[in-house]
Specification:
Number of helices: 7
Structural class: alpha/beta
Helix content: 25-40%
Distance between the termini: 35 Å
Largest sheet: 7 strands, mixed
Order of helices and strands: HHEHEHEEHEHEEEEHEE
Number of strands: 11
Strand content: 25-35%
Length: 247
């Protein structure tokens, strides 16, 4: 997984992504669950910075963290074009450094699913806990076990456009509830199309496993919902949303 060339096309591929819904989830959770007066937060796995920039425009004090320097370069250019100040940092989410007494942190759009080692998930929760102040919120979403084991199993997705087309093939991996995403892009270069390939690995865990790890890291799990609704997850839910508060 490199995100090297993928960063150049990420926003085009994510044009239909529900950023408004993610922002609403953040705003609703903070209004409902925190007594901290500030809105100093960190967007972990921020990608090209779309959500961080939106929140900064709304008056939040946001920092962004991502492992991909290519994604962060795009994010920095977008923040400057939008006229907002969002500091971006190239860091591993399991090894956050330089953050303290934050009001909140969030990991959206599969960010946590890129950790295929359960110890790295635990380390990430512990790192976020250290970065938050007392009562700070951790918000994140993950693929459900159902989505990994059923919907992604040997699935093939494709999209064709004059300038950018892709074929996305899913392959089961050796870990439980995991998938490898084989991505092939065809990018128009004048009269020709250039091909690029990337490989991404993702893994998820059962709801109760995430809850147990959160509690071990010093969090109180306040709610678990599904698919951008206020309803609890069903057996066929695709995306789980967690709200946890540091004790």
């Amino acid at each position: 997984m490199t995100y090297a060339r993928f960063a150049d096309w990420y926003d085009a591929l994510m044009a239909e992504a529900p950023y408004d819904a993610w922002q609403s989830f953040v705003e609703r959770a903070f209004a409902q669950y925190t007594k901290r007066p500030g809105r100093r937060v960190i967007d972990i796995g921020c990608g090209t910075g779309e959500l961080a920039i939106r929140l900064a425009k709304a008056g939040w004090q946001v920092s962004g963290v991502d492992l991909s320097e290519h994604m962060l370069a795009v994010a920095q250019a977008k923040a400057e074009a939008a006229g907002v100040e969002v500091p971006f940092f190239e860091q591993n989410m399991a090894e956050l450094d330089g953050f303290s007494d934050l009001d909140g942190a969030f990991l959206f759009c599969d960010a946590l699913n890129y950790l295929t080692d359960e110890e790295d998930v635990k380390r990430t929760f512990a790192a976020v806990s250290r970065a938050l102040g007392g009562g700070g919120l951790l918000l994140f979403d993950v693929h459900s076990v159902y989505k990994m084991d059923v919907l992604f199993r040997d699935a093939v997705f494709a999209d064709q456009d004059d300038d950018l087309s892709y074929i996305w093939t899913c392959h089961p991996l050796d870990w439980p509830h995991s998938v490898g995403h084989e991505l092939t892009f065809f990018v128009r270069r004048g009269e020709w199309y250039e091909r690029y390939d990337e490989w991404h690995e993702q893994r998820t865990f059962a709801r109760e496993v995430y809850e147990r790890w959160l509690e071990s890291a010093g969090f109180e799990v306040l709610e678990v919902t599904a698919d951008f609704t206020d309803a609890p997850p069903t057996e066929t839910a695709e995306r789980l949303f967690f709200v946890a508060r540091k004790r």
